Amino acid sequence: MTQTYADIATSPNPSPPSTGALDAQNVSCWFSGRKVLERCSLPMHSGRVTALIGPSGCGKSTFLRTLNRMHELVPGAELGGTITLDGTDIYGAEMSPAEVRSKIGMVFQKPNPFPAMSIAENVLSGLKLTGQSYRNRDDLVESSLQRAGLWEEVKDRLNDGGQSLSGGQQQRLCIARSLAVSPEVLLMDEPCSALDPISTRVIERTIRELCNDVTIVIVTHNMQQAQRVSDDCAFFMIEEMGAPGRIVEAAPTEQLFGAPADQRTADYVSGRFG
After folding, report:
1. Residue 259 phi/psi, 5° resolution?
2. 106 phi, psi to nearest 5 deg
3. CA 53 vs CA 116, 120, 171, 217, 273: distances in Å
4. CA distance to 98, 139, 153, 158, 162, per residue, from 119 (Å)
5. pTM for this entry
6. Structure confidence by residue, pLDDT tens digits, 249-259
């Protein structure tokens, strides 16, 4: 029987990976002394897709960037609380920033293939930047593009520039680039916001297929997308202008949308605000 997009989007993961469990406990963030996140705790389970939802400006992307130490790259940024990957503190002495970012990859809102590199070179660029070796270049390029759902579309043009691709293809190329370094977790910051509906559908299908291998955390403003692609969901909001963002409620996606425990969550997912 042919598996439809709807089947893929809702089917459970039959064999979740044994690594890639992220756990944030009491995470607070500051920029130049201004608190933007307040004591956010959230487990992100292996082999599942966790969606971060909420109005603009409530700290979702900031929280996402704490998960692979990108927050600390901003001058004046501070962090409180702990974040662990498979029980190891990612901000502790046991893991360097480079090691953290090789295990926890990031796909940004706007596709950003390197303009001077070919499609194949873009896939391998993360390995070169981190000094990792690889045995068979062609096999790694093919497997990474296969996993990102792009191989069939580009297999005859691997020497073309990465920016010769369409927007949706560029985003999948960026996913392939992240996958080439064999991450345990993939973070996605609104990866479909700049894409057309067809490209969005392909990216969403890719997300559901990838969670068989990696843990995925995605920021999205699209409530329907959160329902389609995620297993678990966390709702962020601020109480008033200038206040730090908080997690109001976190639960399995079906529960959070179908029977939220907090009235503020119910108001947001039903479209009464946000």
Report:
1. -150, 65
2. -135, 135
3. 35, 34, 21, 11, 13
4. 24, 14, 11, 5, 5
5. 0.89
6. 999 999 999 99
Strands 34-44 and 232-237: unpaired
| Low-confidence winner among 50-59, 156-165, 222-231, 237-246 (lowest mean pLDDT) | 237-246
34 CB contacts (<8 Å, ≥6 apart)? none
3-class SS of residue 169: helix
Q: Are strands 246-252 and 232-237 parallel, antiparallel or unpaired?
A: antiparallel
Given a cut of 90, whether residue 158 has pLDDT beyond it is yes
Q: Where do we find the tokens 């990957």?
A: 85
Give the Cα separation of 192 and 171 in Å (integer).
8
Which CATH number does the domain 21-107+128-133+178-269 belong to among 3.40.50.1220, 3.40.50.300, 2.40.128.110, 3.40.50.620?
3.40.50.300
CA distances from 26 to 16, 29, 127, 128, 228 (A): 26, 10, 33, 35, 28
The pair phi, psi for residue 49, each rounded to 5°, is -105, 120
- State the amino acid at position 84 in one-letter form: T
